[in-house]
## 1
Amino acid sequence: MERNPFVLLVFLIVSSMVAAPIHCKKQTQTLGHFYERKMKRSSGIDKSGFKAVHYINKSRVHTQQGMKEKDRIEKLPGQPGVLFQQYGGYVTVDKAAGRALYYYFVEAYHSKESLPLLLWLNGGPGCSSLAYGAMEELGPFRVHSNGKTLYRNRYSWNYAANVLFLESPAGVGFSYANTTSDYDDSGDSKTAVDNYVFLLNWLERFPEYSIRKFYIAGESYAGHYVPQLAHTILQHNKNANTTIINLKGILIGNAVINDETDVKGMYDYLASHALISDETANGIEKHCNFAPEDDSESSRECDAATDEAGQDIYYVDIYNIYAPLCHNSSLTIRPKEPSVANFDPCSDYYVYAYLNRDDVQEAMHANVTKLDHDWEPCSDIIRRWGDSPSTIIPLLQELMANGLRVWIFSGDADGRIPVTSTKYSIKKMKLAVKTKWHPWYLDGEVGGYTEVYKGDLTFATVRGAGHQVPSFQPKRALSLIKHFLDGTPLPDTLNYN
Ligand SMILES: *[C@@H]1O[C@H](CO)[C@@H](O)[C@H](O)[C@H]1NC(C)=O
Ligand SMILES: *[C@@H]1O[C@H](CO)[C@@H](O)[C@H](O)[C@H]1NC(C)=O
Ligand SMILES: *[C@@H]1O[C@H](CO)[C@@H](O)[C@H](O)[C@H]1NC(C)=O
Ligand SMILES: *[C@@H]1O[C@H](CO)[C@@H](O)[C@H](O)[C@H]1NC(C)=O
Ligand SMILES: *[C@@H]1O[C@H](CO)[C@@H](O)[C@H](O)[C@H]1NC(C)=O
């Protein structure tokens, strides 16, 4: 295959597309680009520890009377009939700046009064939970290849919970700020505050959920968002000496946890999965230093080795090393035979077409202010990111110390934040083992492997899944979330179904 000279310019660039995206900036590129920037000395990104905002002006929480009913979605265009309720709309998080976040909420198929509330966040930074989470991973519907009609996902997580998808921060998807200079102030801390203010307002709008057991889940860069939001909730509960939000636990998958181990684990995975040569891996081992305190520019030898690795993986979807690529991004007039079990690598294009339709936006109560840009799966308008701690391990430790359930899962075919990275990051926490490593089962098959640590941290792999675990292994992912929410260990017997 022809070597692409462009690849020499970049550090971790990843393109899963052979058909080059025109509009669609994909989740599969965003994180790679972000790392590339963050690892540079001159990035300007603040990498110090996360600090929650302690004071939130009460004027940011508004009465939400009557707004829930207005947000009810009768039916999405092209949607098959279902019996659960859906809602979508905006929550203003800063009136003065005109900043509002878009949410999509699906109530549970059964027992919505007793099942917990689960917030799902995608990463990026800058990628949409509607694009990925709702429409390609764990939501109730997937988009047909015609970009117009929907089909059911039998493994939707609203079989286990009432699921809330949030497009965050402002500038992602339908979420916006009228003060567009706000987009340049984006970063982890501001995202956490806005997400928290969003929740306070959303729970006013949906008061029946205000004391419900609440969990936060997410993948990829949401490895930052989820613990940061959880930390903020705990802080505010403590300061107020009352349970403002009834947070019980968090779940993060293929998550950005600790830069040094994340990057080292990535190269070790590429080497152990026959994607790069031993020479290249040795070169990286010998010449690269990914420690956050190492401020020197990387050496020529390190650059040469990582460039070599970049070339080797260029034509592989590094977010699922065994997955096919999307070779034709055109929509089809007649929908291709859909399959939840066999993920279509061109799905981003179908979702892009669907969510940019006027009738869809109207039905979802989205884009009410007629934004001047398209809906994108990953934001083009957030161009700067001010702060991103090099590690979130202290937050995970704090959540555990406060009795929250913490689960970390990993699709074992992801090469971007692979299982090796997550294992190295957990190892850094030096936790004592409670239940030693064993396979977990579903339908008489190994669903993955799990190890449970003292202090209540569960690590679980999902076998055969890439970065977006529920896209590739929907049934195993549903089993995982059910066990997480029930607080039951993953089954260690083959007879489990
Ligand atoms: C809270 O916000 C209101 C309205 O924007 C403002 O008038 C007030 O000064 C703020 N309070 C504090 C303590 O910042
Ligand atoms: C943003 O501006 C539009 C047009 O003036 C207005 O309708 C909308 O309510 C504003 N959004 C917020 C969150 O204030
Ligand atoms: C917090 O609330 C508990 C129970 O209502 C009370 O006993 C305690 O004194 C309070 N602590 C503070 C610091 O207000
Ligand atoms: C891509 O798919 C479209 C729609 O099915 C088809 O018309 C077109 O010929 C295909 N293009 C290529 C290069 O295969
Ligand atoms: C919002 O609507 C306008 C006008 O229809 C459209 O041009 C724009 O692409 C839409 N933007 C988003 C984010 O949906």
## 2
Amino acid sequence: MKRFIIVLGLMWGLMMLIAGCAADTKEPAPEAAKPAAVKTETTVATAVPKGIPVLMYHKVGPDEDNDAVIREDLFRAQMKLLHDKGFNPITMEQLNDYVCNGKAVPVKPVVLTFDDGYADTYSIVYPVLKEYGFAATVFVNPGDVGTRLTWEQIKEMQKGGVTIASHGYDHVRMNELSKSEQLDNIVKAQKALKDELGIDNKWFCYPYGRQDDYTQKAAEDNGILLAVTMNPGWVHHGDNPYALQRIWIGNAVDLKHFEERITTEDYTDL
Ligand SMILES: [Zn+2]
């Protein structure tokens, strides 16, 4: 029996190695330790789910003809639905513990991500997150800060408990860059986030979802623990932490389809 347990332990360790999860993920990031936008509820039940939906938002606003944009009223209705139906938005730190270590998370978990750092992430999204006490992650391009969000707005959201993370220094397709250009882009973004916000950033979002094998290694070598793509689907314990799937959200995702996307992995392709 003892030998069996040892073998099981070895197999688990090997699986973790294959999955590429960093061995040491115990220490919470300082920014994750005080999720303030973010309720500090201790009464929420936890469990290890079969999978977690990571929602991918971009711009919130009136541009009806853009697939990746969502109307403000629909966005608000989606957040209200999460609240009313008892969903629990979790942090990247919690997602990492689940993906890499199979740790329990609050029941009915969901991850909210906002790409590109649009001005409306501050003016529309942030107040709604605060209203509901929802955890969320905003992926910014430090090289573009000032053209959309400002560092002041980003700092305010960070202080309010929003996780700020890297979308690369510029919004470029990593797979079209040379290895040294990719490395430079990732390193510059990490440095800017450290210099401006004081964080050792651990989360990455591939611009346009584009990456190659080297991108994953460059991210891993520079302190990134999880990286998200635009490939559709839920995230599971044991998934490659550098190729996490996300669920596209836009105007076509009405409330019925929104609820479907966060309750079943087998959701309708729109
Ligand atoms: Zn983007």
